[in-house]
Amino acid sequence: MSKSIPFQHVDRVPLDHVNIHDDFWSYYIDLVRSVVVPYQWDALNDRIEAAEPSGAIRNFKIAAGLEEGEFYGMVFQDSDVAKWLEAVSYLLESQPDPELESTADEVIEIIAKAQQEDGYLNTYYTLKEPGRRWSNLAECHELYCAGHMIEAGVAYYRATGKRKLLDVVSRFADHIDSVFGTEPGKLRGYDGHQEIKLALVKLYHATGNERYLRLAQYFVEQRGQKPNFYEIQLKERGGESHWTGINHAIDLQYSQSHAPVREQEKAIGHAVREVYMLTGMADVAAETKDESLLAACRRLWDNIVSRQMYITGAIGSMPQGEAFSFDYDLPNDTVYAETCASIGLIFFAHRMLRIAPQAEYADVLERALYNTVVAGMSRDGKHFFYVNPLEVDPKACRGANHKFDHIKPVRQEWFGCACCPPNVARLLASLGEYIYMVQGGTIYAHLYIGGEAKLNVGGSEVQVKQTSNYPWDGRIRFEINPQEPGKFALALRIPGWCRHARLSVNNEPYPVDGQVIQDGYVHISRNWQQGDFVELVLDMPVERMRSHPLVRGNAGKVALQRGPLVYCLEQADNGANLHEIVLPANAKLEAKFENGLLGGAVAITAQGLRQDAAKWPGGLYSSEAVPALQEAKVTFIPYYAWANRGEGEMSVWVRETF
């Protein structure tokens, strides 16, 4: 008999209650504030000459009657502005910035003017196809754009207390509610690119209006019902498709509309849509205490992380449709692994943690965060990866074999489809939300990120100060300062990658065993007083990681991981033709912090072996004895840091000999 879930209430930790002071993460958060958000503002306003134009801000100005012209860009271009505003909101919630707030207010004024009298807000349909609203839900992203704007409206209200954008999105949500539903005269449709559900739950939290929760629940339940709404609309359009050569209304698996969500057995179709769908499902399950909906979330979670996830926390292995493929199909060189997909996986993991604090969710969240998400942005904050391969040969990217066309050996300044850069910005700007959680009388520490937090435990404030040199070192210190002495628990995650952990409270050893570990968290329950401190030491050796035997591309290969970080070979350290390198199973792996390496990082070195192409006997094929492998020093760097030193080869997996 399955265990019943208590569905305890969990309050969001406000960002102004968390101050991150961390050698690793402070750099990226400061980069988002000082470089990424201003850079993206310039990109949205078409002020970066070398980057593809956006047109996103101008579209809103035209729709608002402030400029003349035609719509430019993708059908979902509005969402880039919304995600930028959401990132700005998180920065403002963390730290006031009058100049940035003034810029955001100006954008919000334009958005408000672009809203139609009935509450509708979408510049593509307002400017380009004004008479065809809601006519192509499968392909044209109206509800996706609405969801991102709703998220921005909620975030800006939380940050500033200003209601203008919140009122705009509430009017829009009211309009959507008047259009969709099972009542006579309403459309029985649902979002093509999932996003609206999780946004509506946020709007419900901000306003207390249960109408928005019911609408989110409707969109969850209606998906995949028969007759299929996308097919009905396709017939009404006479078979017309928005995209050349693609018809998303026919491929129902692409948008996870092939079956009702409770009946879906495996992750399938467009990867970002899948994890956004699951995030919304988890939100609705939590709010409605729906255990069968939660069971569907868990089933699809298990399929993703145990059969369809890369070691870097990347998902969506197939470029066709930016999609999941089949179980264990995880190629390294043709992988898609969109940055947004890993961000969506983090959203989903975080929602599952809030329902049931189990370390497996935080482990995956951490894996995706420290590897794929950070890799999605360069250290200068001005270049981005849309696709995150695990093996790159620049010659292949420029060659005649078009299966590598989507792979870029260096990060790009911007994209015509620019969903990933502002998504990275909004996630990193809101990182403070992901570190701690309070459930009942327990403070959960999900992530080991230095700084201070003010947390509400049973109506009393508790200040938690965390210091560490994570992810380079596994020694973490917590100082606990409750407003009033009292009994509660501190639950610290023991990561799945850690084989041995040590713990002390006020310098007294504390057991780390099955009696105090629950679902991967060690619980310290005691009467806490000001100045109490806890020290956790996580062993962090270099680990050789191997794939499931059914992952064909990794047969006979090994990858290195240390703590939460996955490592890779890069041409800058090891020269070209990385495929020639072999790592003996008995090779000693040396980990050393290098101050001058990409802002400071632990590199791993070993005495490896290498095949020398110059000593090949001759010809394309040969029956002659192959020359012995030569000893060669090999260097591995953290995967997130690759492609910051110019163009070159990269590989996560390396051949292994025994």
From TrEMBL:
Q: Which residues form the Non-reducing end beta-L-arabinofuranosidase-like GH127 middle domain?
A: 442-540
User: What sequence ranges are listed for the domain Non-reducing end beta-L-arabinofuranosidase-like GH127 catalytic?
Assistant: 17-433
Give residue ranges for domain Non-reducing end beta-L-arabinofuranosidase-like GH127 C-terminal: 542-655
Pfam families named among the record's database cross-references: Beta-AFase-like_GH127_cat (PF07944), Glyco_hydro127C (PF20737), Glyco_hydro127M (PF20736)
**Source organism superkingdom:** Bacteria
Q: What is this protein called?
A: Glycoside hydrolase family 127 protein
- This chain's source organism reads Paenibacillus woosongensis
Q: What is the lineage of its organism?
A: Bacteria, Bacillati, Bacillota, Bacilli, Bacillales
